Amino acid sequence: MTDVKDFFDFDDAEKCQALAELLFPEVTETPEQCLERFPKRELKEGAKVTRFAPSPTGFLHFGGLFPTTVGERLAHQSGGVFILRIEDTDAKREVEGAAEKLIVTLDHYGIKFDEGATADGEKGIYGPYYQSKRGPIYHVFAKQLVREGKAYPCFTSDEELMKMNAVDKKAEIKEKDWHFDAEAAREQMLDQRRFTLDDVKSSLEKGEKFVLRIKSNGSAENKRKFTDLIKGTIDVPENDEDFVLLKSDGIPTYHFAHAVDDRLMGTTHVIRGEEWLPSLPKHLQLFAYLGFKAPKYMHIAQIMRLDENGAKKKLSKRDMGANMEDYRRMGYAPDCVMEYVMTLLNSNYEEWHMQNPDKKYTDFPFDIKKMSTSGCLFDFAKLNDVSKNVLSRYSADRIYEGVTEWASDYDPDFCRLLTRDPEYTKRVFAIGRGGKKPRKDFGTWGETKGYMGFFFDELFSVTDSFPEGKSAEDAKKMLFDFAEQFDIADDQNVWFDKIKAIADKYGYASDMKAYKASPEAFKGSVADVSSFMRLAVTGRLNSPDMYEVMQILGYERVVNRINNFAKAL
Ligand code: GLU
Q1: How do beta strands 81-84 and 49-52 pair?
Q2: pLDDT digits (tens, 9 = 90+) for 517-539
Q3: Does the pLDDT value for residue 178 go beyond 90?
Q4: Sign of the C-alpha dihedral, residues 194, 196, 197, 201?
Q5: Distance of CA 67 to the CA centre of its chain
Q6: Which one of 69, 84, 86, 272 would you pick to mutate in the ligand 1 pocket, going by the greatest count of ligand atoms within 8 A of its CB?
Q7: What is the pLDDT of residue 372?
Q8: In the predicted model, is pLDDT for residue 66 greater than 70?
Q9: Separation of 64 CA from ligand 1 center, angstroms?
Q10: Nearest to residue 91, comparing CAs of 122, 55, 61?
Q11: What is the rounded average pLDDT for all residues in the chain?
Q12: Which residue in 22, 117, 294, 505 is deepest, having the highest Cβ count within 10 Å?
């Protein structure tokens, strides 16, 4: 057995230097030289540098769009820089094509990055922006830490590693089904620090793999105050775990890559999910060990949803609404989703947008102080409401574009009808649009079918029932009369006068005031006559303005529908 006195002495600078050379002979660049390659950014006072740093392990989650939007707003609102960094250091969890998909999805939502991974490569001088391509950079700083006695190698089997790493829940190994003994793990951890340079040499000669661990000097008993920009002032314990910096394939863990990358890329604000809060002690220790100034942190509460029993649950990956790619299929315009994200992010956003209906969300003075610290509630009904508002402000052309684009992928039959005569379809979408109080009939592209399908004979059918207590006989006569007199060239007044005259003829009040004053004097009112017509022409008792509807449908369709309906009564 090795004598205690021969164990590696972390305070012996020469030994540390020798260990650093043994472990990283290929690293010749110094940290200073490396830092020079990533110059300080020339930015105006107060400009923030933020990044979205997804791991390409799946789709973009609604809970991911949240911090992304905050990062984008803070950067661009302050004249700073917003970066897309792909954190692809975990090959085991990586999903092929996920990074590309993330880029496409982010672009779909109009999230603009100044630097980072792009659809056709990368842009910016602080790259590479894929962590998997930054290996040599991490090794420069890993070597520095070894040289300074702050990190050490650990030649351990995968199985042993797995057990030790369970302490470090966010490191690469996430085995949950074994019994964890904290005391034993700590003893084992300390034991890892007892090695000699000769042990290292011989292991390396045998080609054995090692992980690089931080040599932590912290104690969880010691806590310090830390200001998170969302959570406020919190107590953060020191890290006391020798967590992994480099995995056995030389690839960094999230912790290490985070500290190195965010320093080199000049990130001023790290905005991430609160699930990372427990790792903060590690990160603060790393920044201190590396001699870097830590960025400011914002840990964003997770998005919640209500379950069947009305209890709040975390919006998980499998929940409806989690996958941002689904919204396209569901027919939500990206603008609507972003509008919803903004209403969730800042409590005063909705009011602001009501007062400034023509402005974009990017004009809104976003303020992190107005963010919820406890987790926003995701709710489709609210999304739909918000969405109806947004779409009501679109022009008919824009609606046409959105619906047909959606329908071409998800409802080709509908798409064929919509595009058969674009001008006709656009006239339909123009109904009730453009005024102070625009119609709010649909929140998704798919909902347009129910709203305006009756404009196409292929989709038209009478779906509502004949109003209860009304005379079908009267309706029949009135409808035949109307069909006979209907002239597409009539202006709205003439058109309505004809309807009123028909009402009078059959004992239905043409004057609503008179009807309200003594309803018993009439069989009904002109409103009933309108209902019969509406049902005949649109198949429903609710529809947009009947005059406009008839103008668009055209003479033949109107007369045919009215006659057919009347005949069947
Ligand atoms: N790659 C990490 C994740 O996907 C990023 C966390 C961070 O923003 O620092 O959760």
Answers
A1: parallel
A2: 999 999 999 999 999 999 999 99
A3: no
A4: negative
A5: 8
A6: 272
A7: 81
A8: yes
A9: 9
A10: 55
A11: 92
A12: 117
Mutation test residue for ligand 1: of 276, 279, 298, 300, the one with most atoms within 8 Å of CB: 276
Closest residue by Cα to residue 478 from 548, 542, 562: 562
DSSP character for 40?
Answer: P
Pocket test for ligand 1, best of 84, 88, 254 (most atoms within 8 A of CB): 254
Q: What is the mean pLDDT of residues 316-331?
A: 90
Tokens 């630097």 belong to: 115
Residue 177 pLDDT exceeds 80 = no
Sorted by where each begins, the domain ranges of the chain are 1-301, 308-392, 472-568
Pick from 429, 447, 449: nearest CA to 439:
429
Task: Report the nearest-CA residue for atom 8 of ligand 1.
Answer: 272
* Three-class SS state of 131: helix
In whole angstroms, how large is the CA radius of gyration of the chain? Answer: 34
> Going by CA atoms, what residue is nearest to atom 5 of ligand 1?
53
Within 6 Å (CB) of ligand 1, which residues are found? 53-55, 87, 254, 258, 270, 272, 276
Please state at what angle helix 472-485 crosses helix 492-505, rounded to 10 degrees: 140
272: CA distance to ligand 1 center in Å? 6
- What is the reported pLDDT for 5? 59
pLDDT digits (tens, 9 = 90+) for 20-32: 999 999 999 999 9
Per-residue confidence at 180, pLDDT binned at 50, 70, 90? low
Ligand 1 centroid – CA 280 distance (Å): 12
Q: Which atom of ligand 1 is nearest to the CA of 276?
A: 6
Into which CATH architecture does domain 308-392 fall?
Orthogonal Bundle (1.10)
What is the C-alpha to C-alpha distance for residues 450 and 462, in angstroms, rounded to an integer? Answer: 12
State the Cα–Cα distance between residues 275 and 300, nearest whole angstrom.
9
Type of residue at 17: Q
Nearest-CA neighbor of 152 among 5, 15, 284?
15
pLDDT more than 90, % of the chain: 81
pLDDT digits (tens, 9 = 90+) for 305-322: 988 888 999 988 888 888
**pLDDT tens across 104-153, in order?**
999 999 999 999 999 999 999 999 999 999 999 999 999 999 999 999 99
Q: Which CATH class is domain 472-568?
A: mainly alpha
In this chain, the answer to whether the domains covering 308-392 and 472-568 adopt an identical fold is: no
- For residues 220 and 511, give the distance between their C-alpha atoms in angstroms, rounded to a whole number: 82
* Tokens matching residue 390: 């947004």
Task: Check: CB of residue 278 under 8 Å from CB of residue 250.
Answer: no
Beta strand pairing status for 304-306 and 312-314? antiparallel
What is the pTM for the complete model shown? 0.88
State the closest ligand 1 atom to the C-alpha of 52, by its place in the atom list counted from 1: 8
**Residue 423 DSSP SS3:** helix
Helix (H, G, I), strand (E, B) or coil at 154: strand
User: Regarding beta strands 508-509 and 232-237, do their DSSP bridges make them parallel or antiparallel, or are they unpaired?
Assistant: unpaired
Q: Is pLDDT above 70 for 366?
A: yes
Class of domain 1-301: alpha beta
- 239 and 285 in contact (C-beta within 8 Å)? yes
Gap from CA of 55 to ligand 1 centroid (Å):
7
Beta carbons within 8 Å of 195's beta carbon, 6+ residues apart:
7, 8, 152, 153
